[in-house]
Amino acid sequence: MADSTPKPSSSVKLVLLGEAAVGKSSLVLRFVNNDFQENKEPTIGAAFLTQKCNLPTRTIKFEIWDTAGQERFASLAPMYYRNAQSALVVYDLTKPTSLIKAKHWVAELQRQASPGIVIALVGNKLDLTNEAGASNSLGDDAESDAADGEDVDGDARKVSTAEAQSYAEEEGLLFFETSAKLGTNVTEVFTAIANAIPETSLKGIRGPGAAAAPARTEDPSRVNLTGPRDSASKEGCAC
Amino acid sequence: MPLDERSTDASEHAGPTSIDTEEESDSGNHSRVDKNNNKGEKQRPPLPPRPKAGLLQSDASPNSPQSVKGLRPSLQSKPTTALSSVDIQTLSFPDGSRGTFSTPGSRLVSESVMGLSTGTSTPSGKASRAGIDMDDTTSLISYAPTLRGNGDLESLLDSGLDSPSPAWKLLSTQSEAANPFESFEYEGPSLHSFDKEFDEIEAVDTKRGNEEELLIQWKSKLKHYIILSSAGKPIYSRHGDQNLINGYIGIIQTIISFFESAKDPLLGFTAGNTRFVVVTQGPLYLFAISKLKETDAQLRAQLDALYMQILSTLTLSNLTHLFTNRPNTDLRRPLEGTETLLSSLSDTFTKGSASSLLSALECLKIRKTQRYVINNTMLKARTPNLLYGLIVAGGRLVSVARPKRHSLHPGDLQLIFNMLFEAGSVKAGGGENWIPLCLPGFNNRGYLYMYVSFISARENAENVAERPSTASSVSQEDEIAILLISAEKESFFELKEMRDDIVEQLEKNGSMDIIKKAVRVGRSSATEMVPGTPLRHFLYKSRANVQFTMPSFSPDFGSALARRKLMNLYHALHASAHAKHAHTKVIHCISTDSVSLVWTTASFEFYCIAGPNTSRAALAQGANKIIQWVKREEERLFIIGGAVF
Ligand SMILES: Nc1nc2c(ncn2[C@@H]2O[C@H](COP(=O)(O)OP(=O)(O)OP(=O)(O)O)[C@@H](O)[C@H]2O)c(=O)[nH]1
Ligand SMILES: [Mg+2]
Question: According to the CATH classification, is domain A9-203 in 2.10.77.10?
Fold first, then answer.
């Protein structure tokens, strides 16, 4: 990578949705702080965080809304996904009802969010299954659907990879199984989203170094470099 | 905007920063209660036995603004400074309600005996009649330590500072400089399980049959808070899971609704050394069980605060709506997630909190000019949708920006502080937060939105400000929080910009360093304030500002138990100073392991404690010196006026 010239930088609005306690905040905490808390308290309202993600050709600055999964906050969700370019819909792969809830969120996003929104379906708490850490290659080998609960192996998986993956394919979603606890696949999810965002929908922001170097290797006409940073971020989720 | 819909509740309470009123607002007391009280007082026949006491009773009542205003001027002209005139007799009657359980026959007391038609609440007014009647006949009880434990909950002579053995007394008299509560081996029966008070009780496991064992644990807790619907549906219990306490919920519901249906609501009763207090709020029953010798009024204020928390989650409109549609509603689902907030609130009360006892707030001590700069920074950065702006550091208020027409209700602030600094759920997430909440004191019908961002007060704060650290690594004392409250749901980015502006300016004009330094230094000890003072701890509440100040708990009250003992003492002193007919303005209290003093005037309430061998004169002089110190430092200790726009 050419480090001498600053890479073009753009911001991407991302919203996390999913049932309570599936691990949305934990995924964000892992991505942003590379940290994990064993007994994380439920989110109240929503939390706003930012994190940069370095791609070979450009830097993506994620502006993340980590929403509360508890039912009583559900009515506020549209405020957060309305202008989002991407969404992480999370379920807990030890809890089948959380996948049902995730499917509801996907349907709502497809109906109400911006048309080009990139959605990733994420099955979290992979560490609670017995294949955790054994391999990072997921998805191809279908799990036995009969995996019921904490058997002798300590496998708590209740949602098979195959089931979730085929649903994701049908709906055109990115799909990952992750562990916020171990960090498995967490950066991968965000990187995949960053890569999947169509270049056309990227709004440029003026990064610290970027201001001095307006010349880009990217097609400049497609990247809006003029919008001042503040208004760019403000217009997003706020209105 | 809910601005104009503001309920009358708010207008009756003085905010912590309003200077135009002297009335004190009791954190949990709602106006409905107040009105009933006033009505009750009017309806009540005159009190023949002690007319003088009757007058002062209104004076001491924080809930009746009219009488307060009527009476204060005369008091102000003649504040009691006669520290030596000690009226020991009154000590045994710190709170009139005591009369309801000092006689063996009255274990189960419905206090609604005075012909109150509504009867939803009578904190101590009606019960106090009994207190008056017995005043002269029973006051000697308190002189006889042998009678303690006889349901004499309020007697200051055994105010939770449990009697030591003769041997210890001998020992302690040899030491001139003995500190309060030095004898920690002497934890009387009331506090011996305090260290286990906050341990979780496991879930009931029918297979293992652990229920009996769990019930023993459950019963050994010093404090319980239970909330249920009037239809008997459990809503919240601090200890024990539903399977464990279901039976009790049923019993509680039966007892309360029995009295409800007789139009003779139950307010409280005593069993052994345990006091049970009931608050009925619309479709909810709130129930407190305490072995900590708090008064009914104090327990009621705590229950009111829990009720405020429920309203804060739901709003009164939603709560009413739910139960009107379905009286059998299970409230646990709509309240999902509120449990941790209720528990941390409960635990604050159980640990003992000066702030909630006094219904006042503590401020960060900084110079007047420095606060002025901070206030101005807030005002300059203010954006159109801002309703309230607060800077809080180490759990203490640094600056408040508010509209002229609105002061902040201490009960609302207690909820916010509890959520941010005690429950930890917000801080743990990192980042910036956008939290919908109802502030019932401001308006119990609608939601406001609160922007929250934390900044670490530690040295390496630069990068932390950018990327807020997580709760595991930072304690409450280290945190600076910027809270910006708006009625506009979509104003997150507007307020975020305001926050960035504030932080940038505070960094630039040096205020941020001043705040961080003040947080790191922490509270000074009493000796640092007045060198050589015999006082080990004190509380000073400025009534006009609805704020208080106190020294650090260390070195003498560092442990949770020592703190609880200190709080027991303060609760007892507070109760005696706020008894409906407390006619003393100064109370000097001697017990085996401490001496203490409470002094109330129109402008302040002062509580202090010293070692057991401190003479009365030394205590009085020490108190005077501290009060002089507070007066001198007043503009540093308290926010006077604040940033009003
Ligand atoms: N074993 C395991 N536990 C996890 C993982 N991710 C989260 N948890 C735990 O699951 C619980 C809930 O995690 P949160 O991150 O708070 O879940 P959330 O989705 O943000 O919940 P809400 O904020 O209420 O919507 C916490 O106790 C976490 O420690 C994981 O990958 N593995
Ligand atoms: Mg969360």
Answer: no
